[in-house]
Amino acid sequence: MSSLAISTIRTPLLAPLSAEDAPPTRIRHEIGEGVRLLWSHGFLRAIALYATLINFATSAVFLVLPLKLLTAGVSPVAIGSIETVVAVSGIVGSLAAPSIIKRVPTGLVSIGSGVVAALTILPIAFTDDVLTIGAILAVTIFLLPAGNASVSSYMVAVIPDRLQGRTQAALTFAGGGLMPFGTLLGGAMLSGFGGETAMLVGGLLVFVSIVPLLASREVRELPTPDQWTIEAWPGQGKR
Protein backbone atom coordinates (compact mmCIF):
# COMPACT_ATOMS: atom_id res chain seq x y z
CA MET A 1 0.00 0.00 0.00
CA SER A 2 2.89 2.37 0.75
CA SER A 3 4.45 1.68 -2.65
CA LEU A 4 1.11 2.31 -4.36
CA ALA A 5 0.64 5.62 -2.51
CA ILE A 6 4.16 6.79 -3.33
CA SER A 7 3.62 6.01 -6.99
CA THR A 8 0.80 8.57 -7.12
CA ILE A 9 3.05 11.50 -6.08
CA ARG A 10 3.06 14.10 -8.85
CA THR A 11 4.85 16.98 -7.12
CA PRO A 12 8.32 17.55 -8.63
CA LEU A 13 10.92 16.71 -6.01
CA LEU A 14 14.26 18.43 -5.75
CA ALA A 15 17.15 16.58 -7.37
CA PRO A 16 19.81 15.52 -4.85
CA LEU A 17 23.01 17.52 -4.74
CA SER A 18 25.96 15.99 -6.47
CA ALA A 19 29.05 15.15 -4.47
CA GLU A 20 30.76 18.23 -5.94
CA ASP A 21 27.89 20.60 -5.06
CA ALA A 22 27.07 19.31 -1.60
CA PRO A 23 28.67 21.42 1.15
CA PRO A 24 30.86 19.45 3.55
CA THR A 25 29.03 18.86 6.84
CA ARG A 26 29.45 16.83 9.98
CA ILE A 27 26.74 14.68 11.52
CA ARG A 28 26.90 16.61 14.79
CA HIS A 29 26.33 19.87 12.92
CA GLU A 30 23.39 18.41 10.98
CA ILE A 31 21.76 17.07 14.15
CA GLY A 32 22.20 20.46 15.78
CA GLU A 33 20.58 22.19 12.80
CA GLY A 34 17.49 20.03 13.07
CA VAL A 35 17.15 20.53 16.82
CA ARG A 36 17.69 24.30 16.63
CA LEU A 37 15.22 24.72 13.82
CA LEU A 38 12.58 22.66 15.65
CA TRP A 39 13.07 24.65 18.85
CA SER A 40 13.08 28.06 17.13
CA HIS A 41 9.51 27.77 15.85
CA GLY A 42 6.75 28.24 18.42
CA PHE A 43 4.28 25.77 16.90
CA LEU A 44 6.83 23.03 16.30
CA ARG A 45 8.38 23.53 19.74
CA ALA A 46 4.96 23.05 21.37
CA ILE A 47 4.30 19.97 19.23
CA ALA A 48 7.68 18.48 20.20
CA LEU A 49 6.96 18.97 23.91
CA TYR A 50 3.48 17.52 23.47
CA ALA A 51 4.77 14.51 21.54
CA THR A 52 7.36 13.82 24.23
CA LEU A 53 4.82 13.93 27.04
CA ILE A 54 1.92 12.17 25.31
CA ASN A 55 4.08 9.26 24.15
CA PHE A 56 5.53 8.94 27.65
CA ALA A 57 2.02 8.85 29.12
CA THR A 58 0.43 6.52 26.59
CA SER A 59 3.31 4.05 26.74
CA ALA A 60 2.40 3.63 30.41
CA VAL A 61 -1.35 3.48 29.74
CA PHE A 62 -1.22 0.87 27.00
CA LEU A 63 1.10 -1.35 29.00
CA VAL A 64 -1.16 -1.21 32.06
CA LEU A 65 -4.55 -1.56 30.36
CA PRO A 66 -4.36 -5.17 29.05
CA LEU A 67 -2.66 -6.38 32.24
CA LYS A 68 -5.31 -4.64 34.34
CA LEU A 69 -8.03 -6.38 32.33
CA LEU A 70 -6.31 -9.78 32.56
CA THR A 71 -6.05 -9.40 36.33
CA ALA A 72 -9.78 -8.62 36.44
CA GLY A 73 -10.55 -11.87 34.62
CA VAL A 74 -11.31 -10.45 31.18
CA SER A 75 -10.59 -13.01 28.46
CA PRO A 76 -7.71 -12.47 26.02
CA VAL A 77 -10.20 -12.65 23.14
CA ALA A 78 -12.20 -9.76 24.60
CA ILE A 79 -9.00 -7.75 25.09
CA GLY A 80 -8.05 -8.45 21.49
CA SER A 81 -11.44 -7.17 20.37
CA ILE A 82 -10.59 -3.79 21.92
CA GLU A 83 -7.49 -3.65 19.71
CA THR A 84 -9.71 -4.39 16.69
CA VAL A 85 -12.10 -1.58 17.56
CA VAL A 86 -9.15 0.80 17.95
CA ALA A 87 -7.73 -0.23 14.56
CA VAL A 88 -11.08 0.27 12.80
CA SER A 89 -11.50 3.68 14.44
CA GLY A 90 -8.03 4.66 13.22
CA ILE A 91 -8.91 3.68 9.65
CA VAL A 92 -12.19 5.61 9.76
CA GLY A 93 -10.35 8.59 11.26
CA SER A 94 -7.79 8.43 8.45
CA LEU A 95 -10.55 8.55 5.85
CA ALA A 96 -12.13 11.54 7.59
CA ALA A 97 -8.81 13.34 8.17
CA PRO A 98 -8.61 15.23 4.82
CA SER A 99 -12.02 16.83 5.35
CA ILE A 100 -11.21 17.70 8.96
CA ILE A 101 -7.85 19.25 8.04
CA LYS A 102 -9.42 21.28 5.24
CA ARG A 103 -12.24 22.72 7.34
CA VAL A 104 -10.86 23.01 10.88
CA PRO A 105 -7.96 25.33 11.84
CA THR A 106 -4.75 23.35 12.13
CA GLY A 107 -4.06 24.54 15.66
CA LEU A 108 -7.55 23.55 16.77
CA VAL A 109 -7.12 20.09 15.25
CA SER A 110 -3.90 19.62 17.22
CA ILE A 111 -5.43 20.86 20.47
CA GLY A 112 -8.68 18.99 19.91
CA SER A 113 -7.03 15.62 19.39
CA GLY A 114 -4.99 16.11 22.58
CA VAL A 115 -7.96 17.28 24.67
CA VAL A 116 -10.16 14.40 23.49
CA ALA A 117 -7.41 11.92 24.41
CA ALA A 118 -7.09 13.48 27.85
CA LEU A 119 -10.83 13.45 28.52
CA THR A 120 -11.40 9.89 27.31
CA ILE A 121 -8.45 7.92 28.67
CA LEU A 122 -8.88 8.86 32.32
CA PRO A 123 -12.34 7.20 32.76
CA ILE A 124 -10.93 3.85 31.62
CA ALA A 125 -9.35 3.52 35.07
CA PHE A 126 -12.79 2.97 36.60
CA THR A 127 -14.14 0.20 34.37
CA ASP A 128 -13.25 -3.26 33.12
CA ASP A 129 -16.17 -3.45 30.70
CA VAL A 130 -14.84 -4.28 27.25
CA LEU A 131 -17.62 -2.52 25.33
CA THR A 132 -17.18 0.68 27.33
CA ILE A 133 -13.42 0.67 26.94
CA GLY A 134 -13.67 -0.07 23.22
CA ALA A 135 -16.10 2.81 22.71
CA ILE A 136 -13.93 5.21 24.70
CA LEU A 137 -10.75 4.30 22.84
CA ALA A 138 -12.55 4.53 19.49
CA VAL A 139 -13.35 8.16 20.26
CA THR A 140 -9.77 8.73 21.44
CA ILE A 141 -8.19 7.31 18.29
CA PHE A 142 -10.58 8.83 15.73
CA LEU A 143 -9.03 12.32 15.73
CA LEU A 144 -5.39 11.22 15.94
CA PRO A 145 -4.87 10.71 12.16
CA ALA A 146 -6.10 14.26 11.48
CA GLY A 147 -3.90 15.65 14.25
CA ASN A 148 -0.81 13.82 13.04
CA ALA A 149 -1.40 14.60 9.35
CA SER A 150 -2.03 18.30 9.99
CA VAL A 151 1.25 18.63 11.89
CA SER A 152 3.19 16.70 9.23
CA SER A 153 1.68 18.82 6.45
CA TYR A 154 2.56 22.04 8.24
CA MET A 155 6.13 20.88 8.76
CA VAL A 156 6.50 20.06 5.07
CA ALA A 157 5.11 23.48 4.16
CA VAL A 158 7.25 25.65 6.45
CA ILE A 159 10.58 23.85 6.82
CA PRO A 160 13.25 24.48 4.14
CA ASP A 161 13.64 21.47 1.85
CA ARG A 162 17.21 20.67 2.82
CA LEU A 163 16.28 20.58 6.52
CA GLN A 164 13.17 18.41 6.27
CA GLY A 165 14.90 15.18 7.24
CA ARG A 166 16.92 16.73 10.05
CA THR A 167 13.91 18.41 11.63
CA GLN A 168 11.67 15.37 11.25
CA ALA A 169 14.40 13.27 12.86
CA ALA A 170 14.65 15.71 15.76
CA LEU A 171 10.87 15.56 16.31
CA THR A 172 10.84 11.76 16.08
CA PHE A 173 13.67 11.49 18.62
CA ALA A 174 11.95 13.94 20.98
CA GLY A 175 8.64 12.12 20.68
CA GLY A 176 10.10 8.70 21.44
CA GLY A 177 12.87 9.60 23.87
CA LEU A 178 10.87 9.07 27.06
CA MET A 179 8.70 6.15 25.96
CA PRO A 180 10.84 3.45 27.63
CA PHE A 181 10.58 5.34 30.91
CA GLY A 182 6.80 5.53 30.52
CA THR A 183 6.67 1.75 30.18
CA LEU A 184 8.88 1.43 33.25
CA LEU A 185 6.63 3.78 35.22
CA GLY A 186 3.51 1.91 34.14
CA GLY A 187 4.95 -1.43 35.23
CA ALA A 188 6.11 -0.04 38.56
CA MET A 189 2.74 1.59 39.28
CA LEU A 190 0.87 -1.57 38.29
CA SER A 191 2.92 -3.84 40.52
CA GLY A 192 3.03 -1.40 43.43
CA PHE A 193 -0.46 0.13 43.47
CA GLY A 194 -2.70 -1.89 41.16
CA GLY A 195 -4.29 -1.34 37.79
CA GLU A 196 -6.78 1.38 38.72
CA THR A 197 -4.18 3.63 40.31
CA ALA A 198 -1.73 3.01 37.48
CA MET A 199 -4.38 3.97 34.90
CA LEU A 200 -5.29 7.09 36.89
CA VAL A 201 -1.66 8.19 36.93
CA GLY A 202 -1.36 7.52 33.20
CA GLY A 203 -4.55 9.44 32.50
CA LEU A 204 -3.37 12.42 34.56
CA LEU A 205 -0.09 12.41 32.61
CA VAL A 206 -2.12 12.60 29.39
CA PHE A 207 -3.80 15.71 30.81
CA VAL A 208 -0.39 17.23 31.57
CA SER A 209 0.77 16.55 28.01
CA ILE A 210 -1.72 18.99 26.47
CA VAL A 211 -0.38 21.96 28.49
CA PRO A 212 2.23 22.93 25.82
CA LEU A 213 -0.51 23.02 23.17
CA LEU A 214 -2.87 25.14 25.26
CA ALA A 215 -0.08 27.49 26.33
CA SER A 216 1.22 28.17 22.81
CA ARG A 217 -0.27 31.17 21.01
CA GLU A 218 1.20 29.87 17.75
CA VAL A 219 -0.76 26.63 18.13
CA ARG A 220 -4.00 28.31 19.18
CA GLU A 221 -3.96 30.77 16.28
CA LEU A 222 -2.74 28.55 13.42
CA PRO A 223 -5.48 28.63 10.72
CA THR A 224 -6.53 26.16 8.05
CA PRO A 225 -3.91 25.20 5.41
CA ASP A 226 -5.25 27.62 2.80
CA GLN A 227 -4.42 30.52 5.15
CA TRP A 228 -0.97 29.44 6.32
CA THR A 229 1.65 32.17 6.15
CA ILE A 230 5.03 30.70 5.28
CA GLU A 231 7.65 32.85 6.98
CA ALA A 232 11.34 32.76 6.14
CA TRP A 233 13.43 30.99 8.74
CA PRO A 234 16.33 32.76 10.42
CA GLY A 235 19.26 32.62 8.04
CA GLN A 236 17.05 31.54 5.13
CA GLY A 237 15.88 33.56 2.18
CA LYS A 238 12.22 34.11 1.41
CA ARG A 239 10.34 30.99 0.29
Task: Tell me the layout of helices and strands.
Layout: H1 2-7, H2 27-40, H3 42-71, H4 76-103, H5 106-121, H6 130-142, H7 144-158, H8 164-176, H9 179-193, H10 195-209, H11 211-215, H12 217-221
Residue runs with pLDDT of under 50 for 5 or more positions: none
| Total helical elements | 12
How many strand units?
A: 0
Distance between the termini: 33 Å
* Rounded average pLDDT: 88
| Proportion of helical residues | over 70%
- Listing every helix as H and every strand as E from the N terminus to the C terminus, the arrangement reads HHHHHHHHHHHH
Based on CA atoms alone, the radius of gyration comes out at 20 Å
**Structural class based on helices, strands and sheet pairing:** mainly alpha
Shape: globular
Q: Main sheet, how many strands, which sense, barrel?
A: none
- Strand fraction equals under 5%
Notes on the protein architecture:
- The protein has 239 residues and is mostly helical.
- Helix content is 73%, strand content 0%.
- It has twelve helices and no strands.
- The chain has helices at 2-7, 27-40, 42-71, 76-103, 106-121, 130-142, 144-158, 164-176, 179-193, 195-209, 211-215, 217-221.
- α5 (106-121) runs antiparallel to α10.
- The two termini are 33 Å apart.
Quick tags:
single chain, 239 residues, mainly alpha, 12 helices
Could you write a compact summary of the structure shown?
The chain has 239 residues and is an all-alpha fold.
